[in-house]
Design a protein that fits this description.
The chain is of the alpha+beta class. The chain is built from 15 helices and 20 strands. It has a seven-stranded antiparallel sheet with strand order 6-5-4-10-9-8-7, sandwiched between helices.
Length: 506
C-alpha cells in the first residue's frame, strides 16, 4: 500500500510486462495462424516472430520508463527514454478514473487505469498495470474517495469520504442490474453482427478469397443445378440463415461485453461495471454529466423499453471507454423507470417537458421532397445494376421514404426547459436529449442555401462531451426568427454560467 504522505515516484506493477505481452499474444494468435496458413513457405513466420519480440521489448521499456507521483494538488506522469514526456494533471481537472481488467488482470488483482479530463479527445493518461491497492490510493488522492470503495466489485462504507459520502442513504445503492434475457433482447439489434460480417468480408476480399474462379465457378454450377424455382427457394433459405447468424453474433457479443452489468449510485458518483471476459469499471461524477439522451429503437418501443446514454466532460475520443460508460450507460430499461433513474443521475435534466414546440410549418414538405429525391436516386441505381427489373425497387423505396419523412417530421420538436433545452427526433429510433445552459460550450446558428430559400435556419448546441451519446441537440428546419431568438437565449445562459474555478466568460 502506498503511504498517505508518500510522494515518491511509483512504478507500474512488475507483472505488467508479462501480462501485456500475454494479452497481445492472445489477440494475435488468430491472425498469425491465418497468415501462416495462407502464406506457407514464405517469410511471414519469421516476421511474425520478430513482431512478438519487438512487442515484448516495447512493454518492458514502458515498464522501466513510466513513473507517476502525487503532489498536494496534482498527479504527475512521466514516461519515455529517448523522447521523454512529463504530464501534470491537476486533481480538479480529473473527470473519471476508469478501470479495464482482462481475466488475467482480475486473477492477479491488477487493472489498467485511465485518467480522463475535459481537455482532450482521449484519456489524459493510461497506466497499465496497477495493483488494486494502488488504484484505491489514487482514487482517494485524486477524487477523495475512500480506500475501501474502489476495490473491484467492492462496496463503499457508509458516510466515508467527501465524494464517497452520500446523502439520503445512497451509498452503494444498485440502480440497474441487467439479466441475461434483457441482454439477449438488446443483442437482437443486428448492427454488431453486420459489422463483424463486414470485417470478415473485407478480409476475404483483401486476401482474394472471393476471386478464386475455380471455387466460384463450382458454387455457381452447383447452384444452377437445382433449377430456377429451387434455386430461388435455396437463396431465401440461405438469406434467412445469414440473418439468424447475424443476430446470434450480435447477441453473443452483447452478452460477453455487458455480462453482469450493474449501475450503482455511491454518494455523488455513479459506479458502472460490466464484462464477461474483459471487466470494465467506470466512475462517473454526477456533476460532470453534460447531456442525457433517452433512446428507443423499434424493438424497444414494442417492448416498452429504452436505453439511456450520457456525455461527460472527458475522454470523448476513447471509443472503448465511450462504449462502456457512456454509450452503454443504461443499455436496457423499462420505459416506466426513466424518471426514477434520471432522478438519481441528473434530476435537473428534463427529457419529458410539459410542452414540445414544433419546427417550421414547411418542415414536412421539405422532408417529403428530400425523400422523393433519395428514393428516385436509389431506384435509378438499382435499375443500373439490374436492368430493367431494378425499376421495380421504386415501388418499395418511395413508400418507405415517404413514411419515414412523415413520421420524422411529426416527431421532430424541441422544448425550453428550466435553464436548458431538450430535443427529440427519429423515425426508426426515437431519441430525446436534454442539457442545461451551464453545460453549453457553444451555440451555432447556420443556414444552408435551401434554408435561406425557405426562410429557415438550424441551431446546434455543443457540450464539453459532445459525441458519445450519438444524438446531439441539432435542431433543423426552424423559422429564421425563432432560431435567432433561441440562439440569443441559449448564448446568454451559457455566458452567465460560471466556468471551472468560479470564473465567468468574458
Amino acid at each position: 500500500m502506498i503511504g498517505i504522505d508518500d510522494d515518491r515516484p511509483h512504478r507500474l506493477h512488475p507483472l505488467s510486462v508479462p501480462v501485456c505481452v500475454g494479452v497481445q499474444a492472445a489477440k494475435l494468435i488468430g491472425p498469425f495462424l491465418l497468415v501462416v496458413w495462407l502464406a506457407k513457405g514464405s517469410a511471414w513466420e519469421r516476421w511474425a516472430l520478430l513482431f512478438v519480440v519487438l512487442d515484448t521489448l516495447y512493454e518492458a521499456l514502458a515498464y522501466f520508463t513510466t513513473r507517476y507521483r502525487f503532489t498536494a494538488t496534482e498527479i504527475v506522469v512521466r514516461r519515455g527514454l529517448i523522447f521523454r514526456s512529463e504530464r501534470h494533471i491537476p486533481f480538479a481537472r480529473v473527470q473519471n478514473i476508469d478501470l479495464v481488467q482482462n481475466p488475467i488482470e482480475r486473477r492477479l488483482k491488477l487493472a489498467e487505469v485511465r485518467l480522463e479530463t475535459a481537455s482532450g479527445e482521449a484519456p489524459e493518461a493510461i497506466l497499465r498495470d496497477l495493483s488494486l491497492d494502488a488504484v484505491a490510493e489514487m482514487r482517494r488522492r485524486v477524487l477523495g474517495m475512500p480506500l475501501d470503495a474502489t476495490a473491484a466489485g467492492g462496496e463503499p462504507p457508509a458516510g466515508a469520504g467527501p465524494r464517497g459520502a452520500g446523502a439520503g442513504g445512497h451509498e452503494g445503492r444498485t440502480l440497474v442490474r441487467l439479466r441475461t434475457r434483457e441482454l439477449v433482447a438488446l443483442g437482437l439489434a443486428p448492427r454488431r453482427g453486420m459489422a463483424i460480417v463486414g470485417v470478415l468480408t473485407g478480409a476475404a476480399w483483401e486476401l482474394d478469397l472471393l476471386d478464386r474462379s475455380a471455387v466460384t465457378d463450382r458454387i455457381e454450377s452447383w447452384w444452377l443445378s437445382f433449377g430456377a424455382p429451387h434455386a430461388l427457394l435455396l437463396t431465401a433459405l440461405v438469406a434467412a440463415a445469414a440473418i439468424v447468424a447475424f443476430l446470434l453474433v450480435s447477441v453473443a457479443w452483447t452478452i460477453v461485453h455487458l455480462h453482469g452489468f450493474r449501475l450503482e449510485r455511491r454518494g455523488e458518483d455513479l459506479h458502472l461495471e460490466c464484462g464477461l471476459v474483459t471487466r470494465r469499471t467506470a466512475t462517473i461524477p454526477r456533476r460532470r454529466i453534460q447531456l442525457v439522451s433517452v433512446r428507443a429503437t423499434l424493438l424497444q418501443r414494442w417492448l416498452r423499453c429504452v436505453s439511456i446514454r450520457v456525455e461527460t466532460a472527458g475522454g470523448i475520443g476513447d471509443k472503448e471507454a465511450d462504449t462502456t460508460s457512456r454509450r452503454w450507460f443504461v443499455p436496457w430499461l423499462p420505459a416506466a423507470r426513466v424518471c426514477e433513474i434520471l432522478a438519481e443521475v441528473r434530476p435537473d435534466f428534463d427529457v419529458e417537458p410539459p410542452a414540445w414546440m414544433r419546427t417550421a410549418p414547411q418542415t414536412r414538405r421539405r422532408m417529403m421532397r428530400k425523400a422523393i429525391l433519395v428514393s428516385l436516386l436509389l431506384t435509378l441505381g438499382a435499375a443500373a445494376i439490374v436492368p430493367p427489373w431494378g425499376l421495380a425497387a421504386g415501388a418499395v423505396f418511395l413508400p418507405l421514404a415517404l413514411w419515414h419523412a412523415t413520421v420524422a417530421a411529426r416527431i421532430l420538436a424541441y422544448a425550453r426547459t428550466a435553464g436548458g433545452v431538450a430535443f427529440r427526433s427519429g423515425a426508426w429510433t426515437r431519441a430525446v436529449s436534454a442539457t442545461r445552459g451551464e453545460n453549453v460550450q457553444a451555440v451555432l446558428l447556420s443556414e444552408s442555401p435551401f434554408d435561406r430559400r425557405w426562410a429557415m435556419a438550424s441551431l446546434r448546441v455543443d457540450t464539453a462531451g459532445a459525441g458519445p451519446a450519438g444524438h446531439r441537440i441539432d435542431i433543423p428546419y426552424l423559422e429564421r426568427d425563432v432560431a435567432a431568438r433561441l440562439y440569443d437565449d441559449l448564448a446568454a445562459e451559457a455566458g452567465r454560467s460560471p466556468l471551472p474555478g468560479g470564473k465567468r466568460p468574458g
